[in-house]
Sequence to fold (270 residues):
Amino acid sequence: MTVFTEGNYQRNISFREELRRNLGLLRALVARDLKGKYRRSQLGFLWNFLQPLLQMVVYVVLRLLFNMSTDGSPFVIFILSGVIPWNYFLQVVNGSPGQITGNAGIFRKVNVPRELFLVNGALVNIVETSIGFLLLGILMIIYKVPVNWSILWLPVLALLLALMALGLGMLLTAVGVYQADILVFINPVLQVWFFLTPVFYPISLIPEKYLALYTLNPMVGIILGFRNVINSGVAPDLGSLAYSLVGIVIIWMIAWPLFRRVSPYFADVL
Fold:
């Protein structure tokens, strides 16, 4: 039987007040970053349409040069279904350390969870990525790509993608704030990772003898999931998605305790 005491009541009130304060700060951060990002831009949010389109032009050239297969899907749909999720992953991971360094003035004055700033970066990029998926939806209508019940997998895949990006961004931030060389080194690593993930090529290009090793990459299952749902109208491959889930769990088991341990000292370092 739960005994309600004055101490318990006060703790519950304090928790609700802190939660309300943190959510209010998060909303303010998201609104500030969205407005600030396009404040001096003439095109504003239109850049979120133009960026994937410009990338698609590059891949069209690559396809002409190397005669890449798309497994029967319209090329623009095939490319964008991989590029848009990957761009979100890249932007969140690369932007996470900047969320801490750029907001040091806030947590020097106000005691708030440092994770809040990383969540802010993930949410801002979700808004931008949604615009990219809107473009993809328009193109699917133009190319008459059928949509069925498998589209219900998209929120699950989006959640896994966000958790993957946020966990890796948290790990990178926990180390990179203290060792800036890590932040320089991560860009080449992400470029190699890009080519080891089926973003602009089909997984059918991977020799079968290397397939088991290839799918250990946790981004493979997520990107393939988006591609299966959008291009083929089928559910994601649960085997490869399981590898992604295991990878996410491992990253969070390392990243979050490490981040919680070092984040109270960010203000001293910055």
